[in-house]
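Appendix B.2, paired examples.
Example (i):
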Amino acid sequence: MRQKGAICIGSAKLTGQTKYYAIKARPMMFRALALSLLLTFAGAGPDAGLAAANLAQVRPAIIDKAEIDKRASRLMHQLEMVGMSIALVEDGKISFAKGYGEEARGSNRNVTPDTVFRWASVSKGIAAATILSLEEEGALELAQTASLHAPSLNLPKAEKQISIEDMLAHKVGIVRNAYDNRIEGGKAAKETRSALRDLTYLCAPSTCHTYQNVAYDASSEIVETVTGLPYKAVVHERIFKPLGMSSASLTLEGLTRSKSWAKPHGRFGNLIRRVKPNYYRVPAAAGVNSSVKDLARWMIAQMPTEANGALPAAHQEAMQQGRVATPREQSFLNRNFKALKEAQYGLGWRVYDYNGHKVVGHRGGVEGYRALILFDPARRSGIAMMWNSPHTRPIGLQMEFMDQLYGLPKRDWLRLGAKG
């Protein structure tokens, strides 16, 4: 039943029932006030009318969840889409969560907000947060040489070896995604890391960004060395359990034993029969599974708050501080999502400028799965998404969310055409 004095902002089928998410209606005085101020300062000059016309296109900074739901539903009509889940966070709380499509094409098993997907590289922030918690206890220091606690990290000889901080920011210096092909071929992580010594540097260590998985996963080895415990056990106790992320896991078994889990699909919507274990061998880089609601809980933990459950403010600041420019990422954004500018990397997070606002996020992909987070820490608002096909079109929905958050003109970032 809809609440009196509220507006319906979408519905989601949960365990056979339809649940409505609603928020209190707010005064819609933004346009009139802003227009009045603009005309006051613009006077009767020749640009006053144009400025007023442009302002008329600017929407108030209220998330229209019905529109997000409509756009997501229309996205699912695209042939490449199979299943997807999204969660929206406003003012530090989940305001909308919904599943779309199916766990597997033709299965008649609907995706819900509790369906488990793979995070892929969005997992990297978990590793950074875990290491920061160990540093806070005095078990290690970010300035220490990474190989001190990860002996398998055998990089080419150099005057300076990378620190743990360099590793978490991908300032390694070797070719990007070094030896991912060996992990995909079934090689063990430590064996593969030891072989990195055979490569050459593209830049001096700690001076440029070259994205890594094998080297980044030295994080899990560091955690195990200083704690004497399995990485998955440490993450569960330090991250998943305190944040109430009950669906989260770090193994293939954790995925497939979930009550509802999305199956991977290929480029043309074909079901991939077997989930490969390869990237679970580098759990710090790409090993997390969870529902979108738990992915949203992880996002909320990055936002400033006095409530229990959030990461310490010092950890948030350390992770979300841009430490190195990422020109390859910026090149991708310039071609596809040009509102995201000044792309940098922090510790396990990417950092951008969006229309003058600092936003933080990450994308991830392994065979048959994609995931993303994008949020504004100051406004404590953001979007989390996961889908079980290897396409980039859904990334556009995060852009449409941000345009709404900042009251910007509506843009078709999903490339769905005029009917959207």
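Example (ii):
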Amino acid sequence: MAMAHALAASAQALLSDFQAAKDLLADGYFGTSLAAFNTDRDTGVKLVGENQIGIQAGGVLGLLLANGAVGIGTTTGLEGSLTLADFLNIRRNADGWLLKHQRTDGSQSCGLKSFGHSGAVGLQAVTNDAVRMTISNTGRMVMGTTTPDHYIDIRPVTYAQNQSCGLQIGSTGGQWKGGLFLESDSGGSSSMVVRVPADNADGSFKAIACKHNEMRLRAEGNDKLVIETESIIRPATDNAQDLGSASYRWDDIFAKKTVIQTSDENLKTGIRGFTDAERRVAAALKGMAKIFQWIDAVADKGDAARLHCGFIAQEVEAAFQAEGLDPGRYGLFTRTPITKTVVKTREIERQVTELVTKDREVIEVTDGRAVRKMVTVEVEQPVFDEVPLYDEAGSPITAEVQVGIDEKTGEPVYDHRPAVHHIPVMETVTEEYQAEEPDGERLGLRYGELMCFLLAAG
């Protein structure tokens, strides 16, 4: 009897639950993988696939929940936590926030804010409750202040070396190791410096500087070339640099006037006349002028290569030696080591990368019709090892992460999970690079001095 009463009670409870469901879904319709309205059977909740559920309206799936990812307006190519097929329209709150993340204690907000009013609305990026970047309604961007004076306005950030750097790109090992810097000198003497750190252990760098209406080229940390407003291009230091070298020569030099060579008596010492041996060398050299062709010109032009006249440096050297004189003591004769560029290999360490396959959304326009489609592409991405993070005492560090949404309040639910640190996976590889190696020597003559020497023959 008791069992009969229990069965009757269970049946009554089941009927009550069914009636409640029926009352709740009075207009409901249940089809294959679809729970919809009876009067609008293509609008409702649909089981799309394994671990995939969506909401559709008018037969079009607008929202998809798939394996922890959310797609709005699209059912393919879901990447990350949220994928949108078109654009996201966000209304700001009273404080201007569009997107905001805040610690659970209410401090240290970060996110995006809008400012201004109709017709003059700008965008601001906020970290640690402070505005870090502003884009005005006129398209001007600024970092370090909220009032841009220029279209790109980056205010200085002071470094340990007392340099005021406005922009740093691509630095991988500190201020002086690799990258591009736009800065103004700490003393205010330079209005702009484009600094490219060199690959040297001493921290030297290459740069282009604008200073007092001048442009300066720097290498090894020092000025090398100066372009002045008076239409003068000059070395930065007097009597300290060459134009070209024995290994890297200029070809032709076109000029309206001749070269002016310093010949001031006040800058000379040991002034004397010619010795008898020097006069005999000059007399011997007078008959040594030759007609010749350059080997590289013949290789390029054949017999059409032009004929040149001049002296052979080796013959000039032999003439001095025949009289017991050292030709290297005379400025008219030069002997310079030359180099050649060779390709070498060396081992370097670099981060491992891997090719991964991802779905990308592309728009193809054919015959004036734009079609959105998904394509599969391979992208290269760096590889990291994920290791637990500990504090100095050796205890594991935890990080606060969002794990869900409270069903009653709609507020995010957070939990503490073990924190991790990503360490780049490195590999040793062999790469090619160019280097300069000794390649003998090249003899030369200073023809101006040689002509003066020949005058001593009388």
